[in-house]
Amino acid sequence: MVEVFAKPASLTVKIVRLLNIVRLLKNRIYGEIHFFGIVNRDMKCEVQDMMDMIETPVRDLWRIFRVMAEFVEGFDELATVGPAVSFFGSARARPDQPYYKLAHQTAYMIAKADFAVITGGGGGIMEAANKGAAEAGGKSIGLNIELPLEQVPNDYQNFSLHFRYFFCRKVMFLKYAHGFIVFPGGYGTMDEFFESLVLIQTLKQASFPVILMGSDYWEGLTNWMEEKMLKEQAFIAPEDMNVFTVLDDPQAAVKVLTDFREAQGPVGIELPTGMKKI
């Protein structure tokens, strides 16, 4: 086992060294051009193009290793968390707002029902969910992402992972979840909600509960989906509207998830007909 992992590590070191050599070579060439007084603009452009042709493939190869590392760490760390529920919602929700309080209460009850709670690790709804899970004595997991704005890890995670790439993080939300609870939010929240619907609809993800909390917030969107997407344009099928549930009561959300867990049994989430297991 040690020997298997030794080769990628050695290759990684070689890639880093090669990348450093390329950068040194580029600096050396630019230095000689300056030293000998070669200031021809076309020549400088040719040198730049040549160096970019060498450096870009090496840089892309190194990026592949960073992506692999995030997947390996995520799979390794989350494989033993047990049944989990992923929470989504706005990072801008404040502690004094009703949705924040609802998320805190819901996560507390979910953790008491022996589910791990997974969030994006930030503020707002994510903080409320992590706080509720931690106060219930449950697993409060944060999948943190590097962002130039907004994302500051909250203080209520008792298990944290850090990601550079959104797509690696998205896989972790899906792979280890027995359900999604989606609170009011913005673009990121809508992205997670609709992506879960697409994956379930196209049999790329085993069907599990997707719960929208806060009917007053979701009413306009769900009505539009039914009237425009389903009835007017027939862009979705009638059964596609049954992929998610709109609720206001945390206890009702817990029941949906526990009923689903009991129906699945100890073997885990049952794959839908037509879905191939890799």
Summarize the structure.
The protein has 278 residues and is α/β, with parallel strands linked by helices. The chain is built from eight helices and seven strands; from the N terminus they run ααβαβαββαβαβαβα.
Fraction of residues in β-strands = 5-15%
Numbering strands along the chain, what is their spatial order in the largest sheet? 4-3-2-1-5-6-7
* Helix/strand class: alpha/beta
Instruction: Tell me the series of helices and strands, N- to C-terminal.
Output: HHEHEHEEHEHEHEH
Q: Fraction of residues in helices? A: 55-70%
How many β strands by DSSP? Answer: 7
Our measurement of the CA-to-CA distance between the termini, rounded to an integer number of angstroms, reads 23 Å
Task: Summarize model confidence as the mean pLDDT.
Answer: 83
How many distinct folded domains?
2
CATH architecture of the largest domain: 3-Layer(aba) Sandwich
Report low-confidence residues grouped into runs of 5 or more. Answer: 1-9
CATH level-3 fold name of the largest domain: Rossmann fold
Q: What is the class of the largest domain in the CATH system? A: Alpha Beta
Q: Number of helical runs?
A: 8
Radius of gyration: 24 Å
The biggest beta sheet reads:
7 strands, parallel
- Rough outline: globular
Structure report:
This protein has helices at residues 2-35, 41-78, 98-112, 125-135, 166-175, 187-201, 215-232, 250-264, and strands at 84-88, 116-119, 140-145, 159-163, 180-182, 210-213, 244-247. With 278 residues, it is an alpha/beta fold. The protein folds into 2 domains: 2-76; 81-267, Rossmann fold (3-Layer(aba) Sandwich). The protein has a 7-stranded parallel sheet with strand order 4-3-2-1-5-6-7, sandwiched between helices. The longest helix has 38 residues, at 41-78. The radius of gyration is 24 Å and the shape is globular. The model is unreliable at 1-9 (pLDDT under 50).
